[in-house]
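Hi R.,

As promised on Friday, here is the backbone we talked about, encoded as structure tokens. Could you run it through your design pipeline when you get a chance and send me back a sequence?
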């Protein structure tokens, strides 16, 4: 699939039925407090936008599961020790830090608290929490929806906003963080569309941030 094809799909209008399915404003409002930790109010909306794009490219996915899971996936950071988020969650051993497992568990707790009251079934909640639980720490995806959430979660890192935030979290310059994106994060993307989006976004960010000279 070419990047041109992806863009054509991205800009296609959402059907009326799809729009009704994805009116998620009540859910956004329900977790507003959890959005104010660790840059979630920047990270999650951008990741959500990538999820929207990927769902258009891959209409066979259950788009509502993907959208709800990406919206809630990092809310658990609001319920861990905030003083340890950077020192442990983004330290040398960040992939295996206990606090990363903890934020996944807390994110599942939040999903179970807010979703039933908004009309979501127990089966739907389980599908969402199965994705949230392990989205950072589980080595493999267990469903296509899980794959789209994982790619969306990583794709935001390739944007200028993602680079600005994450390079600071990891104590790197934008240039060195962009290099890390190419070597470490790009290979983790699962879908062809996700990889093409990442390359396009990274090239745009590197040009804007003048990483060749800075």
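Update: got your reply. Pasting your designed sequence below so it's all in one thread:
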């Amino acid at each position: 699939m070419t990047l041109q094809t992806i863009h054509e799909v991205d800009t296609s209008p959402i059907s009326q039925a799809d729009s009704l399915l994805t009116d998620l404003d009540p859910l956004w409002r329900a977790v507003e407090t959890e959005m104010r930790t660790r840059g979630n109010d920047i990270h999650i909306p951008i990741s959500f936008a990538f999820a929207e794009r990927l769902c258009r490219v891959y209409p066979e996915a259950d788009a509502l599961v993907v959208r709800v899971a990406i919206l809630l996936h990092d809310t658990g950071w609001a319920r861990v020790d905030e003083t340890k988020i950077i020192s442990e969650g983004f330290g040398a051993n960040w992939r295996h830090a206990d606090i990363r497992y903890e934020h996944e568990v807390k994110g599942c707790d939040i999903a179970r608290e807010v979703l039933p009251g908004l009309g979501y079934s127990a089966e739907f909640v389980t599908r969402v929490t199965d994705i949230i639980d392990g989205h950072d720490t589980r080595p493999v995806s267990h469903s296509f929806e899980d794959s789209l959430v994982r790619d969306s979660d990583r794709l935001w890192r390739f944007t200028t906003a993602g680079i600005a935030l994450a390079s600071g979290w990891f104590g790197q310059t934008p240039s060195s963080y962009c290099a890390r994106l190419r070597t470490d994060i790009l290979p983790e993307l699962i879908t062809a569309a996700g990889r093409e989006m990442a390359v396009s976004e990274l090239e745009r960010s590197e040009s804007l941030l003048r990483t060749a000279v800075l």
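One thing I noticed while checking it: The CA atoms of residues 160 and 208 lie 8 Å apart.

Thanks again,
M.
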